[in-house]
Each structure stands twice: as C-alpha cells, then as structure tokens.
Specification:
By secondary structure, this protein is an alpha/beta fold. The chain has a 6-stranded parallel β-sheet with strand order 1-4-3-2-5-6, sandwiched between helices. Adenosine monophosphate binds next to α2 and β5.
Amino acid sequence: MTTARSSTRPQLIDDVAQLRQRLASAREAGLNVGLVPTMGALHEGHLSLVDACRRECGLVVVTIFVNPTQFGPHEDFARYPRDLQSDLQLLAAHGADVVFAPQTEAMYRDRHCTYVEMTGPAETLEGDSRPGHFRGVATIVLKLFNLVQPERAYFGRKDFQQSLVVRRMVADLDLPIKIVVCPLVREPDGLAKSSRNVFLSQSERGRALSLSQSLVTARQMVSDGQADVAAIVTAMREKLAAADVEIDYVAICDRDTLRPLEKLDGPAVALVAARVGQTRLIDNELLEGPS
Ligand code: AMP
C-alpha cells in the first residue's frame, strides 16, 4: 500500500473539474484514494473516520456538503451547523489531503432530475420518519463515489441504517468500492457525538443521555438472558419516557435487513430516534443475542 503524509492544511476544492484533476495526478503517482463523506461541523466521530482512512489510503479526500435533498421541508437544513474554517484546522491535524466542499449549485446543477431510489433497508425507521431522506443520501453518495472514484469509503456506525443502505447500493450497482464502517464515538458520559448536539441546552443534553442509556438497558437485559424483544423495547421506552423525550422509534432489528425481530437468537441491532426539544437525535447499539 502506498501512503503519503501531509502535515499542512488540506487542499480546499469547490470545483468539480479541479477535483478530477487533483485525483488524476494522485492516481498517476500511484496513490490509492479514500473518501470520507461528511456534512461538516466536524467532531471526533468524523475524525475517527479520517484517521482510519489516513491509515489505509495514500490520498485522503474528505467531502463537506450539507446535502439539501436529504432534508425534509420542515427539517433543519437552514440551521444545520456550518464552520468550514474550524473543519479545515481539524482536518489538517488529522492529515487529510483534499477537502471537497462544493456549493449546492455545483452538485445539483440546473435541471438536475436524476435520483437513486431504494427499497429494502431504506424503507423503514429513518426512511419512514424522514420520507425522501435516503433518496437524497443515496443520490449524493453515488455522485461523490462517481466524482472521487475511491478504492475505499468510510462511514460511521452512528448512522447504522445509512451504512447499511450505502453497502446495499454498492452491492446492487456493482460499484468497485470497499465500504468501511467505523465504530460509534461517544462522549465520556455515553452521548453519541453528533453535529446536532450543539443545539442542545444544558438541560436537554441531560435528557438526551436517555438515548444511550436506553441502549445500555437493552444490552444489560440481553446479557441477563432476556430474549423477548417486546420486553426489551418496553424497558427502553420507559427509560426514554422518564427523561421526557419525544420518542420517534425504538426498534430491535436484524443487522442485515433491518427487519424487526420478535426473539433475539443471534446478532441484532437496537436503534432509537427521539426528539429532545427541537433537536432530533438517533443512536444505536449492537446486540449479540443471549449466549
Ligand atoms: P454527517 O456529517 O453527520 O453526515 O456524518 C458523516 C459521517 O460521519 C457518517 O458516516 C457518520 O456516520 C459519521 N459519524 C457521525 N457521527 C459519528 C460518531 N459519533 N461516531 C462515528 N461516526 C460518526
């Protein structure tokens, strides 16, 4: 494997033609290309993906794009946090080579009318709660894959369903890209790191802990031998209700299909989405099933 170190600021590119040129010269130099797609407002979760990419790829390309098509009309696209200067500093410290941060018009040009529609794991949970979300995600991810043509692309388990949807798209469309799913990074008290955490007031942040705590409860019940999904979901819901958060969904599903389970008899995933004040948060935990 060929690797290159970069210690200075990454090259900031907002233009598709310039990006293609940069990638062509990297390939001529024999570098394998890794891609980390993000919406910016970077935190340690994102940076863990960049670190993994840096370890495994010769050229580290990070994209920063708040993709309008994956937000619903009443969601937080307009107020989503944006801080390119801080992102660039963090990415310099983590050795990113190229940051592609296009304007919306560069990604969705006049008369854009092509979208990726998916069924299967895209239709449940986030797909149910946020109609059109995965259509937007799959479309922008496929565009970025086509632009960058990475050998490897890095996603976080924080967005478990998204990583599944992307893996399915790559398999279904025969894309020659290895999808690497990195562990979920949490705050010391368990809160999953998220760009949206900045929206939480101090008291909301305390209540938001109920998401990760409900997942701890699920894990604990499973390790105590509980295999009845309804009982686990009830306990998780109680934890969330006690913190007065507005539950969107609590589900325990098959890890590959996201089909809801009734009995835990093997690897599964527990997923939760809830609104804390105005802020919608998601979290998940892998469950191994009773031994
Ligand atoms: P976003 O900027 O929220 O679209 O996230 C970009 C990528 O970073 C996605 O693959 C996320 O799953 C990943 N990511 C976000 N938060 C975390 C986290 N706390 N731990 C690990 N990966 C994360």
